[in-house]
Design a protein that fits this description.
Elements (H helix, E strand, L loop, with lengths): L1 H10 L8 H14 L4 H7 L6 H12 L10 H14 L3 H6 L6 H23 L13 H12 L2 H10 L13 H15 L11
Helix pairs in contact: 1-3, 3-4, 8-9
The structure holds a DNA duplex (21 and 21 nucleotides).
GO molecular function: transcription cis-regulatory region binding
Organism: Coffea arabica (Arabian coffee)
Protein name: Transcription factor MYB114
Length: 200
DNA sequence: AATCTGCGCAACCGCATTGGT
DNA sequence: CACCAATGCGGTTGCGCAGAT
């Protein structure tokens, strides 16, 4: 019986907007069992949804400590700077903005900031290539950050700062972490003179 | 008052990466 | 060491709402 239901759940993933009832079921299940093994979550929670769909819904909407809307000028500035550094690594950028999701930042960038940046570039006369060509792998991100700062040790710190495993939890993401990023970004704006080293 | 256009948000799809067997 | 499955990420699309004409 159960196996049949599970099978159908996997084969016929419901699509479209989530209902309040689905949200409740998902939240209830995750509260009890935790947010892991999304395929299992999808089947055991009684939702005819794909695991990926459940994950997205949880991360972008149901998860606690999520801020909705009202992106402050500070956050906007941070997003612009981080995007300049990291390119379209939305999850990394989101990791530095407590309570924000990669999807929200991505949407915000696409609808607001990209236009803003573009018009700024037109004004500056610096048209052409995007702020940061999107690297395809984390390794490339590291290389890019290193290249940006022309300083190995700094790049190493950066890599630590931008750990992917960071959660959006406000309790973890303290002011000091944010301060660290802001400092880091200040360095990006006013980079110290590169030491005479192996770096070009 | 009705229609059209643009904007913002939520969700889906495909690809890449990582972990386990 | 190779293969398979699961997970995560980024890009793109669709839907609904608000404002302008």
């Amino acid at each position: 019986m159960a196996s049949k239901q599970e099978g159908s759940a996997i084969r016929f993933c419901r699509k479209g907007a989530w209902t309040a009832e689905e949200d409740r079921k998902l939240a209830e299940y995750i509260e009890t069992h935790g947010a892991k093994k999304w395929k299992t979550v999808a089947t055991k929670s009684g939702l005819n949804r794909c695991g990926e769909s459940c994950r997205l819904r949880w991360l972008n909407y149901l998860r606690p400590n999520i801020k909705k809307g009202n992106i402050s000028p500070d956050e906007e500035d941070l997003i612009v700077r981080l995007h300049k550094l990291l390119g379209n690594r939305w999850s990394l950028i989101a990791g530095r903005l407590p309570g924000r999701t990669d999807n929200e930042i991505k949407n915000y960038w696409n609808s607001h900031l990209s236009k803003k940046i573009y018009s700024t570039k037109i004004t500056d006369g610096t048209t052409g290539a995007p702020a940061a060509p999107p690297p395809t792998t984390m390794a490339k991100v590291q290389v890019e950050v290193q290249a940006t700062h022309h300083h190995e040790s700094q790049a190493d710190n950066t890599e630590l700062s931008f750990g992917v495993g960071d959660s959006l939890d406000d309790s973890v993401e303290g002011t000091s972490a944010m301060d660290c990023i802001i400092k880091f970004l200040e360095l990006d704006e006013n980079p110290p003179p590169p030491p005479p080293g192996p770096n070009h």
